[in-house]
Amino acid sequence: QLHSDLDKGVGTVKYTLSGDGAGTVFTIDETTGDIHAIRSLDREEKPFYTLRAQAVDVDTKKPLEPESEFIIKVQDINDNEPKFLDGPYVASVPEMSPVGAYVLQVKATDADDPTYGNSARVVYSILQGQPYFSIDPKTGVIRTALPNMDREVKEQYQVLIQAKDMGGQLGGLAGTTTVNITLTDVNDNPPRFPKSIFHLKVPETSHVGSAIGRIRAVDPDFGKNAEIEYNIVPGDGGNLFDITTDEYTQEGVIKLKKPLDFETKKAYTFKVEASNLHLDHRFHSVGPFKDTATVKINVLDMDEPPVFSKPMYTMEVYEDTPVGTIIGAVTAQDLDAGSSSVRYFMDWKSDVDSYFTVDATEGTIATNELLDRESTAQYNFSIIASKVSNPLLTSKVNVIINVLDVNEFPPEISVPYETSVCENAKPGQVIQTITAVDKDLSPAGQRFSFKLSSEASNKPNFTVHDYRNNTAGIETRRNGYSRRQQELYFLPVVIEDSSYPVQSSTNTLTIRVCRCDSDGTIQSCNVEAIFLPVGLSTGALIAILLCIVILLVIVVLYVALRRQKKKDTLMTSKEDIRDNVIHYDDEGGGEEDTQAFDIGALRNPKVIEDNKIRRDIKPDTLRFTRHRPPAEDNTDIRDFINQRLQENDVDPSAPPYDSLATYAYEGNGSVAESLSSIDSVTTEADQDYDYLSDWGPRFKILADMFGEESYNPDKVT
Q1: Full domain range(s) for residue 48
Q2: Per the database record, which ranges form the Cadherin domain (predicted)?
Q3: Using alpha carbons only, what angle is made at residue 17 by residues 12 and 18, rounded to the nearest 5 degrees?
Q4: What DSSP assignment string belongs to 314-329?
Q5: How many whole angstroms separate alpha carbon 255 and alpha carbon 274?
Q6: Does residue 564 lie in a domain region?
Q7: What is the pLDDT of residues 189-230, one digit of tens each?
Q8: pLDDT tens digit string along 14-43?
C-alpha cells in the first residue's frame, strides 16, 4: 500500500502507478493506494519489477509529492524439478575393472532460486543399474560397484539416474535420465582350438604356394585383442608347409612350401601353435595366452605329368655351326607307379623362327639354321614333354642356348675422335688417348694392340704409344706445327686383337693444328683465324670488319656516281649514241660484221673473251702509216684526238664505247666555228684514213669505207 502524508482520507488525493508491469501485472487503487497483482508471477521468468508511484491532487491534477520509485521482488517457491540437460548419456568402462572405477559424471540443473531455501539443492540416486554401478549423491559421479565384470558375459548396461531437489526430502521434485554403459574389451581370454587334431587331404599335384587347408582357434575377445598368430612348431614335416593368418576371419591358412610326391611320402604330421599378438600384462597370471593343435596331412596319389631331370637346361654352340648338329639333350620321365614313355616337342610360341629342332623320342636338340652371334647371342625357348599314356599331362622346361663367338670382326676405334694439336706443341706430348671395340664377344683377358701403319712409321709428325691396357696415346714427334704449312694431318693406326685368328683394321685419325696459348689451351682451330692479328678480341674483329664493309660501300657508290656523270656527258639525247651509227647501203659483212658489232659485248665488257682484242683501246703494236701527207689544217685536230685517245686508254673508269668523246655543236655565228668534221670545209681528199686498217679486224669495214682505194665522192652521204 502507498500512502501520502497529505492524504486526509477525504478523497482529494489520487494515486498513480507506472513502470515494469504497471497495468498488466500490477494495478493500484487510486483512492486507497493498495497495489494488487492481477496475474500469476513466475520468478524464473522475471525475479523483480521496478515501479514508480505518485500522489496527485484530484482537482488540480498536480503532483502533491515528488514521484517515488520502489522494487517488487518475487519470492521463489519450489515449482521446478531438476533437469539433465545433456541426457541421455553414453559411457564405457573396460571390463574387469576394479570396484570404484570411474565411469561418468552426470549433472542436473534446477531453475529455482539456490539462495532461498532448499528448492535448488539436488541429490542423485540410482533407480536402476544396481548392484553393478553406484553414484555419488552430491557430485553425480558414476563408478563401478562390482569387480571383474566380464564383457564376454554381458556387454551393455542401462542405468537410470534420479536427481531430486529439496535435498532429497519428502515433497521434493525429481528428474531422471538414462546412462548406457558399455564394457570395452581387454585381452583377458587366450585363443583355444576347438579340437586337438585337424585332418587334411592334399593331392600330390598341388602347386607350391597354394592353400591346402584352414584351421581356426577361437578367441572370445574382440578387435585387436582377438588377433591370432599361427606358427608351425618345428618337427616332422614342418619344413614342407607354411601357415599364415587370414586377417578377416582369423583363420590359419596352411600353404605348400615344397612339392609333394605320393611315391616319396604319403603322410605328414606337425603341430600348430595359436597365440595372441597383443598381450595385457594384467592377465599374465591367468595362464599362457596360446594353444596348440596337431595337423595330419594325407597325400593323395594323382596321375602326374613327366618330370624333367633339371629345372632348366643351358647349352652352348659355336656360331656358323652346320645345320643338323646335335648340341645337347633334355630328359624327362614318368614317376608314377605305372611308368609311361615320354614324347618331346618344341613350344612353338617360344621358338617362332625354328632355329632348333628336338627329337621326339630321345629329346636331343639340333640346329635348324645357321647361327650368328652378332645377330643373336642367346636363344631362349621351351620344350614340352608329354606322357604317351595321357598326352594331356605335359610339363615344360626352359632351354637357354648361348652362341659362342668366332673371331670374325677386327677391332675398331670406339668413337670418332676430334683430335687437335697446338702449334707450339713439344715432342713427346700426348694429344689424344684412344680405345677400341670389337663386334665379336671378347673373351676374358682380350687385348688390343695399337701401332702406326708401315707407310706412316717413317713420317716425323706423330707416333702411337701402346699402353698395354687396351688404350693407346697419340704423341707428337716434332717441336711445333704450322697451320700455314699444313692444317690437317691424317694418321693411320693399326689395331689388332688377341683372338684366333687374329683380326686387324687400319683406322685413320684426323689431327687438326690449332692455335693455343702458353698453357696449351686451344684458342682457335678455324682456317680464317690464321690471318687475324693476335690479341684481338672477337668484338674488335667484328668492328674492323664492319668498318671495311662501310668503306667498300662508299667506294662503290662513288664509282657508280662518277660513271653516271660521264655517261650523261656522252649522251646528246635520250637515245644511246650507239644507236646513231652511220647506216650503210651495203648488205653487211656477214659473220664478220656480227663479230665486229657485238652490241652485247659493248654493254657488258666482262663477257669479252680473253683471246679477243679490246675494241676501245688501240693496239700497242699498231703504227700509223700514211700514204699521203696530211693537210696542215688537220694537224691540231689529229693531235687533240690522239691526246684524248691516250687519256682514255689509261683511264680505268672510261666506258668501253667506240666513240669515247663527243663535241658539242656551238651553233652558227661562232668565231671558232664548228669543230665537227661533218661541216668542215676540208675535203675528203685531205683526210687520210689508211691508219684504220692497222687497228685490227674490228675497224676493217671503216678502213674499207674511208680508205684511199675505195674512196668515191659520189657515194658519200
Answers
A1: 16-73
A2: 4-84, 85-193, 194-308, 309-413, 413-531
A3: 145
A4: EEEEETTPPTT-EEEE
A5: 16
A6: no
A7: 889 999 999 999 999 888 999 999 999 999 888 888 888 999
A8: 888 888 888 888 888 888 888 888 888 877
Cα distance between residue 338 and residue 132, in whole Å: 74
Minimal CA–CA distance to 473: which of 421, 422, 433, 507?
A: 433
Distance between CA 258 and CA 347 in Å, rounded? Answer: 26
Residues 313 and 292 in one domain: no
Residues 440 and 516 occupy one common structural domain: yes
Output the pTM of the full model: 0.40
- Whether residue 631 lies inside any domain: the answer is no
More confident residue, 589 or 204: 204
Nearest Cα neighbor of 29 from 13, 6, 47 is 13
Radius of gyration of the chain (CA): 66
pLDDT digits (tens, 9 = 90+) for 139-159: 999 999 998 888 888 989 999
At 44, which CATH number? 2.60.40.60
DSSP-derived pairing of the beta strands 312-318 and 394-404: parallel
C-alpha cell read off for 664:
658539242
- How far is residue 356's CA from residue 379's CA, in Å, rounded to a whole number? 10
Local structure of 539: helix, strand or coil: helix
pLDDT band at 717 (very low <50, low <70, confident <90, very high): very low
Nearest to 395 by CA among 328, 359, 345: 345
Q: What is the average pLDDT across 253-266? A: 87
- In the chain, the largest separation of any two C-alpha atoms, in whole Å, equals 187
Q: How distant is the alpha carbon of residue 526 from its chain centre?
A: 38
* 356, three cell numbers: 632348333
Domain final position from 300, 331, 366: 300
Residues near 328 by beta carbon (within 8 Å), at least 6 away in sequence: 313, 315, 364, 365, 401
pLDDT for 541 equals 84
Find the mean pLDDT for residues 495-509.
86
Measured CA to CA, the distance from residue 178 to residue 474 in angstroms comes to 100
SS3 638: helix
Whether 100 and 152 map to the same domain: the answer is yes
Residue 6 covered by a domain: no
* 625 inside domain: no
End-to-end CA, the chain = 167
Residues 359 and 445 in one domain: no
Write the CB contacts of 474 (distance below 8 Å, at least 6 apart in sequence): 419, 430, 431, 432, 433, 434, 462, 463, 464, 465, 491, 509, 511
Average pLDDT of the chain is 80
β-pair partners for 28: 35
Q: Are 175 and 163 in contact (CB under 8 A)?
A: yes
Q: Which residues contact 197 (CB under 8 A, 6 or more apart)?
A: 293, 294, 295, 296
* pLDDT tens digits, 518-536: 888 888 887 554 444 445 5
Judge contact between 329 and 363, C-beta under 8 A: yes
Closest CA to 433 of 446, 447, 445, 415: 415
* Residue 541 host element (H or E): helix 538-570
How many residues in total does the chain contain? 717
Q: For residues 676 and 678, what is the distance between their CA atoms, to the nearest angstrom?
A: 5
Distance, in Å, from the CA atom of 657 to the CA atom of 647, rounded to the nearest integer, reads: 14
